[in-house]
Amino acid sequence: MTWTDRLAPSLAPSLDDFAALAKAAFDALPDEFRRLTGDVVFRIDDFATDEVLDSLGIEDPFELTGLYQGVDLSRRSVLDFGAQPSMVFLYRRPILDEWCERGDVTLGALIEHVLVHEIGHHFGLSDDDIHRIEDEA
Question: Domain of life of the organism in this record (predicted)?
Answer without folding.
Answer: Bacteria
